[in-house]
Amino acid sequence: MQLKARLMTEEEMDRALKRMSHQVLEGNDGCEDIVFLGIRKRGVPLARRLASNIKAIEGADIPVGELDITLYRDDLSDQAIDINAVVSETRVDFPIEGKIVILVDDVIFTGRTVRAALDAVSKLGRASRIQLAVLIDRGHRELPIRPDYVGKNVPTSRNEVVSVMLGECDGETCVNLFSKDH
């Protein structure tokens, strides 16, 4: 893969996440009953950053959980998943019943990851509402799913890859665009 462009620097990501945090507060008339569920892997640190921003704005602690969607994906066959070998990384130590659940992910592409996350959330309880926050919306939806909060819209071709890098996972924080073409 060949680097085509740096889409966001660390500072630009921070600004986008702060804006998204304000939008979450505005869209929900404050932060009462909000919980964040980060979709593993990079959605989790992004959810923590949103919660930290809301703490700085409102002084409120927003619960953050980790959602593992492996068993809910429709792109893996039953033979590809060994139920005994899969260790769920879902960590939600608070009730979601009656809460406003905001799913957080790094990139939305086809919408299939979000569909799997919705299935996973339904196993945890009945939320009053489920919303979606993504850092990058790159288009090419295959399902009728649209994020409520977007850091940046980036039109892409199908032979491009958007790579979100976070210090917590990758040692560096930025968003890059790569071409699959040689």
Detailed description of the structure:
- This protein has one domain: Rossmann fold, CATH 3.40.50.2020.
- Helix content is 27%, strand content 29%.
- It has 4 helices and 8 strands.
- The protein has helices at 10-27, 43-58, 112-122, 167-170; strands spanning 2-8, 34-39, 64-67, 100-108, 129-137, 149-153, 160-165, 174-179.
- It is globular, with a radius of gyration of 16 Å.
Topology:
Layout: E1 2-8, H1 10-27, E2 34-39, H2 43-58, E3 64-67, E4 100-108, H3 112-122, E5 129-137, E6 149-153, E7 160-165, H4 167-170, E8 174-179
Parallel strand pairs: 2-3, 2-4, 4-5, 5-6
Antiparallel strand pairs: 1-8, 7-8
Could you write a compact summary of the structure shown?
The protein is 27% helix and 29% strand. The protein has helices at residues 10-27, 43-58, 112-122, 167-170, and strands spanning 2-8, 34-39, 64-67, 100-108, 129-137, 149-153, 160-165, 174-179.
Taken together, the total number of domains comes to 1
For the record, the CATH class is Alpha Beta
Q: Using the alpha-carbon principal axes, give the shape.
A: globular
CATH topology: Rossmann fold
If you average the pLDDT, what whole number results?
A: 93
Largest sheet: 5 strands, parallel
The separation of the N and C termini measures 7 Å
Q: Could you give the order of strands across the largest sheet?
A: 3-2-4-5-6
Please give the number of β-strands: 8
- Show unreliable segments: none
- Rg, rounded, reads 16 Å
Q: What are the secondary-structure elements, in order, as H or E? A: EHEHEEHEEEHE
Approximately what portion of the residues adopt beta-strand conformation? 25-35%
Helical/strand content category? alpha/beta
| DSSP summary: helix tally | 4
Give me the CATH architecture, please.
3-Layer(aba) Sandwich
